[in-house]
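Q&A log
Question type: sequence-to-structure
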Amino acid sequence: MNDTPEKTAGTTILVGVDFGLPHFDGELEELGLLAETAGLKPVARITCKRKAPDAALFVGSGKADEIKELALMHGATEILFDQSLSPAQQRNLERHMGVAVNDRTLLILEIFAQRARSHEGKLQVELAKLQYLSTRLVRRWSHLERQSGGIGMRGGPGETQIELDRRMINDSIKRTKERLDKVKKQRSTQRRQRNRRDAFTISLVGYTNAGKSTLFNALVKARAYAADQLFATLDTTTRQLYLGHADGSGRSVSLSDTVGFIRDLPHGLIDAFQATLQEAADATLLMHVVDASNTNYPEQMVEVQKVLAEIGAADVPQVLVFNKLDAMSPETRPVQLNDHFTVDGQSVPRFFVSAQTGEGLAALREFLAHEAVISEPEDHVDSPELE
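Response status: OK
Response body:
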């Protein structure tokens, strides 16, 4: 009698390898959230320590055997690594374990593919995924066998199936880039028009699930999609934010909600989303939203700063918004709701708010109104109030 459980589609084993880096997630909490966001069901988690990755199997043969036994025990259909695997490591692990093996990079790409809504967002994800897959063609699948050339065949004499696949995927990359370039030009034109109307622009940035979209909705009374999950928002949304003053005057500024950042965000995604992330690089002010209730917020802030540097937005002035005040325990709640916090050696204004309840938002609005006024050119004409 076979006691091995039947394999259930979508069940996965989570694997993390500690190489001594400070951000190692020993509980694999974030990988688990990513897996669930993608529609997978984690059934077991396993971690190990190594000084360096094994060239062939990443974790070494002994640990690979242990993971294989765990997958058999739970009837898992997939092994998911918290780090990036080389094409050879991925291929070797799949052959060794007899189930699909994927890494954090592909998982994030899959989530982005599921969540993209706009034409531009879909093109950006498609390009990043094609570029990722183009590195995975080297003898990974059994159908990549040598084909015979001849009349009626797509390939020339002796051309391999892998060469045909590589040519097809490179053609797809070229076409997608051309289509994306057209969309980028349209967005650039829209941005120039907006900049002529409003000199002051604000972009919301932050780690995924910090509550950016909820804050965006609270500030501009919009109905942008917001949920307690990773990467709820992928496509940039821009609205006019009216900032009133005590004397009855006021002006409108542009507020943009952007895609959330995450540790080890695939470089292909950063490159592909350059047009979307350009909103942050071109902003007058960055509103860096932080989940104040998350004990790992310092590491998350570091990751956000890394991505900002990669997209050329490191020198854009910031205001820190420590969100989810309502989720903080009484003993961790701040005495003052606004102060200053050091980021990369610079003192940055900080506001504690709850986008959910509205606590602290009035002070944040007042600060933004003041910043908008002092940035105005002398000949600036106030924008009319929104209807």
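Response note: The two ends are 73 Å apart (CA to CA).
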